[in-house]
Amino acid sequence: VTSAFTERYPERLEATRERAAAAGLEAVIVTPGANLHYLVGYDAVPLERITALCIPVDGAITLVVPRLERLAALASPVHVLDIDLVEWDEDVDPYALIARTLGPLYTVGLDDDMTASKVLRLRAAMPDAEQRLAGVVLDGLRQRKDSDEIAALREAGAAIDRVHAAVPSLLRPGRTEAEVGADIAELIISEGHERVDFIIVAAGPNSASPHHAVTDRVIGIGEPIVVDIGGTMPSGYRSDCTRTYCIGDPPADFLAAYGLLQQAQDRAVQAVVPGVTSGAIDAAARDHLGEWAEHFIHRTGHGIGLLTHEEPYIMAGSEQIIDEGITFSVEPGFYVEGRWGARIEDIVVCTDSGSESFNRQPRELVVIDPRTP
Ligand code: ZN
Ligand code: ZN
What we know:
Elements: H1 9-22, E1 27-30, H2 34-40, E2 52-56, E3 62-66, H3 70-74, E4 84-88, H4 94-102, E5 107-110, H5 116-125, E6 130-133, H6 135-143, H7 147-170, H8 177-190, E7 195-203, E8 224-232, E9 241-247, H9 252-270, H10 278-288, E10 301-303, E11 310-314, E12 327-330, E13 333-336, E14 340-343, E15 346-350, E16 355-357, E17 366-368
The structure holds zinc ion (2 copies).
């Protein structure tokens, strides 16, 4: 099986080698997760048994896999790439095998998401190799999306927009957050996602908790409802979008704050141009919130791609430069404990002259007439 990205993998592997050499690494070891998926299209199940893509700066690239995972590995684009497959049997020490495969090293970059037990076993097997994070090589590569990745994220954005477009029809007096959330889960799949990643339906005081999920609380009239939802598309790329709703009219002070939030979100999106710092995008939203800024208790956004949250993070004081092709969320909010909260979230890509938003649903507060049948 190959994917739309198959022809990209050789250039990604080559770029990894070049960046590793420039960073003073002699090899990079990648374990199952987004990095492995990105580099060779193998969306491997993370197990206690180690699977390791060994990328030396010079020499053959090797995928060390448990024998029982061999067919799964070969079902991925790995079989069409110039990668040696080395299987290990249950009675073999795979860490010694990896050390032998790579030969003596003084520096090695390890997948940032490798589990501690694997890191320590590799350290024991390669005692002369200084271990560093492979993120110094891979994060920069992954955060700048190519045209195929941008197309995949645009498709994900359109899919989650279709779900949000249907949310007002689900919000009826008497329903619980969990009931609405279950309907949303079905829509996330029927609108083209392969997997539901998360569903937040936070009504009334629950909307003051940014990562609330769903509860059996009945949604009341006049209560702001934060709906933040996302899933994974068959491409592997993810959606993540927040809109705020209300059945009936919300309190006047909420409405005033929401108006300010909508402007703040728009200002942050307008601030996106190649060369801007992540900190300046955050400030564009935060400064506009004025007295409400103290209730904006999280960063403005996060990178998105094969993971929902990845580099770069859009946060106060960050000097990280945003370049063309970097995709991230712009999601300011405000949260008043015991009362209510709100958030507006779009995924954008930095273009050659500004930004393109992958989410197009209206950003105004969506007020639903409680008498609608
Ligand atoms: Zn979100
Ligand atoms: Zn988000």
